[in-house]
């Protein structure tokens, strides 16, 4: 019976250890900051050296991937993350995407307008599917995914993307937010090589006549996301421009060319691009889409305003918070703005809107910041430039104690003078009584009174200003004392009769 009880206890203890370990591992995984969000394993045509994987830092701190690994589980292989170009770094910023490419040069040939972060890594993805993971320096797989060709992405121009925790097949979005809905290419899409183009564009579409005499149109559209309603953006803040192209039957086109001009001399290429303006104004953004001999264009007018977003106040300690203020008359999208407390970053989530002339509060349980009384915070645009530097101690909401200015001597000096005066009075009382010269004046004895004080004070290292104040105080006291003694002597002479 005792043995059975011991065995049961041992099993219970073992189960407890397993449970604790499971919780610890779960907690570790919950803190994972790098995840796999998109897999392009089978490109249209030959995919040799053209495969790539997208990763995302969903943590609040930048991650250096130098000692991290990209692993192919079944194959038992792991690969390093190398900077591309070689002069770059291996830092994946908080809230940022990056593409891990088998051959970065080949990737850029497919995506000439891509301007995001690229890591060079040597791998070959199986078209039949496999399990991939991102492994931290401790050898722990912080994110593991198994892609399945049954979901899609098999040579039809789509990639596999993580959307709301599920994997879908959609048009590729390297380095940008994934699609929210799946896309299935049409079974029979017309080949632009079989048509003759008029070579002109009209508004948002261009048309041509197929060999059968049927009129064909393609069209383009600019998607501004949350900015679409106001068409107002802030100087210095990156805005995501998404191009859309539609074929003859109105369905999305596969891999057309997207060319952007932004009205301030800037240009970019790519289906999704980030762009920011340096100066306020009204700008016209033009998107040109081309596929074979067909072209289409779309345009949108943007109002670019000066940044008027700032940190208005902060709480400290257990009541830490950050109050952001929008001083403009427009609502502003704060997606991907960042706050830096000197040690770590907090990336404001996508879709965070601050209304005109309004404030929002970011509590410490969301930012992870424990703010000190004199901590300095930086409010950063999405592109990393500093919008504001803020120190809690200098904020208007918690002003530092400032002494009130007046014409009277400041308190410390008065206090010191009073003490010196008391010492002087004690010295006068205990000193031998000298003969009093009725003709002596205070001004006549000034140098003799101040000199000893200066000498004594110099020996103690007190400043000259203190000597002067103490000396004047002593002189005043001495003058009063002498005056009283003189009055006493004169009174005594009147009261007594001198006998011969």
Task: Give a written overview of the molecule.
This protein is of the alpha+beta class and 500 residues long. Helices cover 21% and strands 32% of the residues. It has helices at residues 2-30, 104-110, 364-367, 411-430, 446-460, 464-495, and strands at 34-40, 52-57, 63-64, 69-72, 77-80, 82-84, 91-92, 97-101, 117-120, 131-135, 141-146, 159-163, 166-170, 195-197, 205-210, 215-223, 232-234, 239-246, 257-261, 267-269, 272-275, 281-291, 294-305, 309-315, 321-326, 332-333, 338-340, 345-347, 353-354, 359-363, 376-380, 386-391. It has a 7-stranded mixed β-sheet with strand order 6-9-8-2-1-12-13, with no helix packed on it. The chain has a 5-stranded antiparallel β-sheet with strand order 14-15-16-18-21, with no helix packed on it. Strand 10 and strand 11 form a beta hairpin.
Which features characterize this protein?
500 residues; alpha+beta; Immunoglobulin-like; disordered N terminus
Secondary-structure topology with pairs:
Layout: H1 2-30, E1 34-40, E2 52-57, E3 63-64, E4 69-72, E5 77-80, E6 82-84, E7 91-92, E8 97-101, H2 104-110, E9 117-120, E10 131-135, E11 141-146, E12 159-163, E13 166-170, E14 195-197, E15 205-210, E16 215-223, E17 232-234, E18 239-246, E19 257-261, E20 267-269, E21 272-275, E22 281-291, E23 294-305, E24 309-315, E25 321-326, E26 332-333, E27 338-340, E28 345-347, E29 353-354, E30 359-363, H3 364-367, E31 376-380, E32 386-391, H4 411-430, H5 446-460, H6 464-495
Helix pairs in contact: 4-6, 5-6
């Amino acid at each position: 019976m005792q043995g059975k009880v011991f065995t049961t206890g041992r099993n219970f203890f073992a189960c407890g250890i397993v449970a604790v370990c499971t919780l610890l591992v779960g907690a570790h995984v919950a803190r994972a900051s790098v995840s796999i969000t998109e897999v392009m394993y089978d490109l249209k045509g030959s995919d040799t050296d053209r495969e790539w994987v997208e990763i995302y830092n969903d943590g609040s701190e930048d991650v250096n991937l130098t000692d991290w690994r990209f692993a192919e589980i079944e194959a038992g292989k792991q690969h390093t993350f190398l900077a591309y170009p070689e002069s770059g770094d291996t830092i994946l910023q908080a809230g940022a995407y990056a593409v891990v490419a088998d051959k970065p040069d080949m990737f850029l040939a497919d995506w000439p307008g891509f301007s995001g972060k690229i890591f060079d890594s040597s791998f070959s993805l199986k078209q039949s599917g496999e399990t991939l993971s991102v492994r931290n320096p401790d050898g722990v797989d912080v994110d593991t995914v198994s892609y399945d060709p049954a979901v899609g992405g098999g040579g039809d121009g789509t990639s596999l993307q993580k959307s709301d925790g599920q994997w879908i097949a959609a048009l590729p979005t390297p380095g940008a937010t994934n699609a929210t809905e799946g896309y299935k290419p049409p079974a029979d899409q017309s080949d632009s090589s079989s048509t003759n183009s008029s070579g002109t564009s009209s508004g948002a579409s261009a048309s041509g006549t197929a060999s059968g005499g049927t009129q064909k149109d393609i069209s383009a559209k600019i998607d501004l996301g949350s900015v679409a309603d106001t068409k107002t953006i802030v100087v210095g803040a990156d805005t995501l421009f998404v191009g859309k192209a539609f074929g003859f039957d109105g369905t999305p086109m596969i891999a057309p060319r997207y060319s952007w001009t932004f009205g301030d001399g800037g240009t970019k290429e790519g289906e999704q691009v980030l762009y920011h303006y340096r100066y306020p104004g009204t700008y016209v953004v033009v998107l040109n889409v081309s596929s074979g001999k067909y072209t289409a264009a779309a345009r949108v007018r943007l109002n670019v305003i000066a940044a008027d977003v700032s940190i208005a106040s902060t709480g400290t300690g257990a009541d830490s918070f950050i109050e952001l203020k929008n001083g403009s008359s427009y609502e502003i999208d704060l997606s991907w703005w960042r706050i830096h407390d000197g040690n770590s970053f907090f990336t404001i989530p996508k879709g965070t809107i601050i209304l005109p002339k309004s404030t929002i509060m970011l509590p410490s349980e969301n930012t992870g910041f424990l703010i000190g009384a004199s901590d300095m915070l930086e409010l950063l645009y999405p592109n990393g430039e500093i919008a504001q530097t803020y120190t809690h101690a200098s904020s208007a909401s918690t002003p530092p104690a400032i002494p009130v200015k007046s014409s009277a001597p400041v308190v410390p000096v008065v206090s010191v003078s009073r003490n010196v005066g008391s010492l002087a009075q004690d010295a006068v009382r205990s000193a031998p009584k000298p003969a009093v010269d009725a003709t002596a004046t205070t001004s006549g004895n000034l140098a003799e009174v101040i000199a000893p004080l200066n000498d004594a004070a110099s020996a103690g290292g007190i400043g000259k200003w203190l000597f002067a104040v103490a000396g004047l105080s002593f002189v005043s006291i001495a003058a009063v004392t002498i005056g009283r003694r003189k009055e006493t002597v004169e009174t005594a002479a009147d009261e007594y009769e001198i006998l011969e």
